[in-house]
Predict the 3D structure of the following.
Amino acid sequence: MKKKIAIIDASEPLKGQEPRVIRRDELKQFEDSPCWFESHNTYMGKEGFWIIPVMFHTFSVGTIMSYTSVLNGVGGCGELGLSAYNKAWRCWSAKPTDEQRKAVKWN
């Protein structure tokens, strides 16, 4: 007896889900998951790249997010202060278009 195999289009559930800026309070939900990093007028460039938040540390001066990334084929890691979120840097749920990036205002 032959088994019937259902073929599911994995992109179907993603249709209608536009890239959006992740709220600061939901960043921890993206721990160990890729998100699109964008910086605002900083040395890290304005075009953005994929990062994976790996850990959050809270100190007396604030909370730091540690991340890993691959940029231009080179792996790296770093830390970002959450106090600068949506002022100097922000993360998107998926890679935005230039138009989407420009349409969402920075704080």
